[in-house]
Amino acid sequence: MFASVLVSGLVLGGIYSLVGAGLNLIFGVVKIINFAQGALLMFGAYFSYWIVTWLGIDPYLTLPIVAVGMALLGYLIQTTLINPVLKQERTSQLLITFGISLLIQNGALALWGPDIRFVQSFAGYDTFAFLGIRVGVSAAIAILGAAIIIFLLFVFLNKSKMGTAIRAVSQQSDSALLAGIDVKRVYAIAFAIGSAMVGVASVLMIPIYDIYPLMGEQFGVIAFIVVVLGGLGNVQGAAIAGVFLGVTQNIFAVYVSNQLSVAILFLIFLITLLFRPQGIFIRKMRVS
Amino acid sequence: MRNKKATSEASSILTIPGLQSAGWPAFLGIAVILIGILAFPVAFDVRFYFVQVGILIMFYATLGTAWGIVGGYAGQHSIGQAAFVGIGAYTSTLLYMKLDISPWIGLIAGMLLSALIAAVIGYPLFRYGLKGDYFALGTVALGLIIFEITTSFSTITGGSQGIPLKYEENPLNFQFPNRTVYYYIIFIIWILTVFISYKLRRSRAGFEMLAVRDDEIAAARGGISVLKAKLTAFILAAVISAAAGTFFAQFILFLDPSTVMSLGISVQIILVAVLGGMNSYLGGTLGAIILIPVSQLLASTFTERPGTDIALYGVILIVLMLFMPNGILGLFRNSPKWRKIVGW
Amino acid sequence: MAQDCGLVTMASSILSIQNVKKSFGGLDVLKGINLEIEEGKITGIIGPNGAGKSTLFDIISGYQKANEGKIIFEGKDVSKLMPHLLARQGVIRTFQLTRIFRNLTVAENLLVFASNSKNQKGNSNERAIELLEFVHLSGLVNDEASTLSYGQSKLLEFAQVLMHSPKILLLDEPFAGINPGLIDQMMQHLRKLQSEGLTIVLIEHNLPMVAKLCDSIAVVTNGVIEMHGAPDVIVNDSRVKEVFLGGH
Ligand SMILES: Nc1ncnc2c1ncn2[C@@H]1O[C@H](COP(=O)(O)OP(=O)(O)OP(=O)(O)O)[C@@H](O)[C@H]1O
Ligand SMILES: [Mg+2]
Hints:
heterotrimer; A: ABC transporter involved in vitamin B12 uptake, BtuC; 11 helices; 72% helix; B: mainly alpha; binds adenosine-5'-triphosphate
């Protein structure tokens, strides 16, 4: 019993990690809160769903198309909507991502209706035995896939030239500008990667989770918790925090209260915001 | 107090923003408009539907104006403002339904509870210097927690099924045989809110909020307590929102979490304030006058396609932020005279 | 380590900085600053870029906490006070990078500073008019502060802090970016304020200007007060010449 709770917690955690790490990248580099992260997850899920429906291929095979498509979408959002308001007050940027979220989420509702949809992967409900535990094949794919993508992101950020530029910009946008880095392009690429991670997450989750217009809402908000717990701009931290939250939520749901399992995460979030902001947010000046 | 005395001198260059800059035509205009609003439900033989739209406009005008205090004056963008509407609505309703306490008392209780929660949440958030974005995140979390809790404790709150309010015609129970009375009640709440916002803009406390919004560090150098200014704004907005919440529950006689405290309501509140111009005491009102009829129209046009109206809201929000981030009244900021009148 | 150069006595000190240390990460910026600021005097602080002068102001005015050491103002330990409380006690500063309220009008910028000080005197409106005339901003009272030039912003900030009736004024490079004609007037104004009993501390890179204005000069290098003394002594010191005349 506990083992299977743990496994489904890990699946949830893997999704949280991907969405959260993507958000963290955007947050760390562009310095905006992307309120549309959850809506993008939902959009990726529908994206995959429609390809599956039209082409009749296995959902896992849509992964490259969805990832690239979502990256393009992210790139577009940053270049057309966010870059023009970089100089304006932070509210403008925040409310723009908020508007994007409303548009995508309710646009999906208007276009595709509130019906719950689902896809079948080759794995179906197959399970296999692992260390004496029965593990769903799609659950294993989700967990492994999330781990691989996080690892790849980590390698990309630390080993590639673009990764170095991204880290430079996230640390200090001004001096990066001096060093001849095109900051706006780096922003757009960071947003693209953050969105692509969400795309991957959506493909990995739809063989297990239902697809409906509001499906992303919870994930989008929990991604903020991942960012706060994991530390700003810290990809590994986000990955670990995501897993922690997924497992915690699942255990709480099964053994304490299913209804309050989401509320408990928000509580963790608020407590973190309230009592451990020092480790996360650097305070330069004392004012209040 | 000191600067009030100083600035009331006629030749003073330090005139406080306000309607006096517009002279008597403004006062005359205001009087005419107010009389018009008051006479609207009775003087013309209007369908109750239009009275209802009027009620909704004033309801959102109240919330938008209140949001302008925390979001516009103090620059702290509370994304979970509907939580306080919900707290007000549920406090008075539960007291009424479970303990038979008059909603008028519930109104006060809801306002007090909102103030308390705003203080308890706001203090540490502001105290640790969580500014801007983090405050916004914190308020999102607050909104969602309160939403989830209300939905989960269904034995008390009725959960997502909601609770119908019992109907006993009795003014002492905030219930009136003539539904037009609600129009006048929300009128009073709205006009008080605008008045508070106007007075605040002209007061020392208001200046402190504006200063904090512009530059916390410079504000502190001016002897301003940044924490106090933000907290005052946050609590004030919460209290007003709670009062509006109680009103709304009594008006529709039914309460469920998504009617009063969904994220959508929070968005609507922000949109109203942003459209009108959140820095002005008139912003919330102007925003509501434009947006509420439009939203009624959108909702009734797209009944068979739910979601379309909110999606369009998203578009409006994006376009506004791209091209008119200061809202309609923000267009007046470059004229010294008008700037004073709208209290930018 | 600090040498007294020609200052006979430390008459009455209004502000006393005692063994203040501050480091950022591994970087020791202030390594034990000791400095007495005399009441009613103009003290200049000089030192190379990055010496920690602005950091010292941040610590005095409460914006940063020292790792060690104390700040005593009028006999009381104020090391732990928040900036706004220090401001209310009369410790008012300017910032090297000007800070004004950009979305408020020029007039409102002054109104914000019109009270909140325990030290308020006179009619704040008259004072505002006077100050605005002095900094040549009377014609722009109703303009949004964001429309001001850098020099004008700096002057507005100068007017703001004077609005507050400080007891001690900390000016971080007040003359940088101001046109020379106005600098002379500002200096005269500072002297006038001094004659009314105000204590002034200012950071300035222009050595002749500091020498002309100040009653004493402190030199910050390597995180300590290298020297503190009368202007003529400091200006003629070979080490100071080396650092400053080399750099300028
Ligand atoms: N918040 C901070 N975090 C890290 N390092 C800092 C911080 N503030 C200042 N420093 C460092 O401390 C040193 C001193 O800075 P400070 O601004 O006090 O120098 P300064 O004497 O005012 O120089 P200048 O004449 O150029 O204004 C510099 O090396 C600076 O990089
Ligand atoms: Mg400096």
